[in-house]
Amino acid sequence: YMLKTVICGIEFKNPVFLASGIMGETGSALKRTAKGGAGAVTTKSIGKNPNPGHRNPTIVEVDGGLLNAMGLPNPGIDEYVKELQKVREDLNKMNVRIIGSVYGKDEEEFVEVSKKMEKYVDIIELNISCPHAKGYGATIGQNPELSYSVCKAVKKSVKIPVFAKLTPNVTDILEIANAVVDAGVDGLVAINTVRGMAIDIRAKKPILGNKFGGLSGKCIKPIGIKIVWDLYENFDVPIIGVGGIVSGEDAIEYMMAGASAVQIGSGIYYRGYDIFKKVCDEIVAFLKEENLELKDIIGIAHE
Ligand code: RRO
After folding, report:
1. How close is the Cα of 296 to the center of ligand 1, in Å?
2. 148 alpha carbon to ligand 1 midpoint, in Å?
3. Catalytic residue IDs
């Protein structure tokens, strides 16, 4: 109960969510993380048409994190809504909200998928930030004009809150954030993965099928913290912090930088599906020790 929180008028039983990614590819995977205690679950990024994704290997462990180039594998929105239909009632009974991650190659695709997604989710998260999908993702999220027009078009087309997920792979993230906030987004999600590569020195070539990919996990946390800090200083919309959160302490750090909630992806690899429950318990223990409430710590490091 200490962790109950309201963001954009939506009530969450706790602020520790599943991040978009591998665990959001099917309805049953979403349900598994909901059972692990997540306050909300985010879908894999879903597009207009089915997409097989990149060649194997698509993920490799590196020091302090995971490097992935999944390549937006998904069955397309029309198939994916069937997955959501299967589990929506169960998630509702568990009091777990759903965030629908959407990608597209242009405004029209983003709008079409968002409108279909809207019926089944509580918040739309626009993935304009995949680091390694040609013509998608970061192509939009690295360009303020494209970011503006995609967010503006989706905002005009749906009634539920719209968040934009930002890429750290830019020179000036505030310029991008400024564009999407101008376009009217209701919140920001930061950060997507950091571009990276690993080379197999025996095979003498990059490990990933796609050669490069996106880095997640512990090693990117300071990058995420600094970006959330900067977003909090400059904008008045809620921020969901994501990037390298494995413990309650990590989550608290993001909240003190300004995040109203956090998302966990790679952390599941290190601590299991129950990581959401564990992180929640660790946040509660901290709040009790410090005699603080959740709302007190959001942005507290700026004071
Ligand atoms: O599917 C992916 O390869 C992927 C996506 Br869409 C993303 O946004 N971030 C990432 O690290 N991988």
Report:
1. 33
2. 21
3. 130
**Residues 280 and 256: beta-carbon distance below 8 Å:** no
**Residue 82, phi then psi, degrees to nearest 5:** -65, -35
CATH architecture of residue range(s) 5-57+72-193+216-302: Alpha-Beta Barrel (3.20)
Cα-based torsion angle of the residue sequence 106, 25, 116, 91 in order, rounded to the nearest 10 degrees:
-140
The letter for the amino acid at 214 is G
Ligand 1 nearest-atom number relative to CA 214 = 11
Question: Which of these, 41, 49, 106, 102, lies nearest to 75 by C-alpha position?
Answer: 49
DSSP 8-state class, residue 208: B
**ipTM, 2 decimals?**
0.98
Closest protein CA for atom 1 of ligand 1: 72
* Exposed / middle / buried, residue 207 (Cβ in 10 Å: 0-12, 13-18, 19+): middle
The closest residue, in CA terms, to atom 6 on ligand 1 is: 72
Q: Is 68 exposed, middle or buried (0-12, 13-18, 19+ CB in 10 A)?
A: buried
Instruction: List, run by run, the mean pLDDT of 10-residue segments along the chain (303 residues).
Output: 96 98 97 98 98 96 97 97 97 98 96 98 96 73 96 98 97 98 98 97 98 97 98 98 98 98 98 98 98 98 95
Kindly give the distance from the C-alpha atom of residue 69 to the centroid of ligand 1, in angstroms, as a whole number.
6
45 Cβ closer than 6 Å to some ligand 1 atom: yes
Residues 114 and 126: their CA atoms lie apart, in Å, by: 9
302 Cα to the center of ligand 1, angstroms: 31
pLDDT of 131: 81
C-beta 130 within 6 A of ligand 1: yes
**Position in ligand 1 atom list of the atom nearest CA 165:** 8
Distances (CA, A) of 6 to 11, 12, 101, 233: 4, 6, 20, 21
Contact residues for 177 (Cβ-Cβ < 8 A; gap 6+)? 166, 188, 231, 234, 235
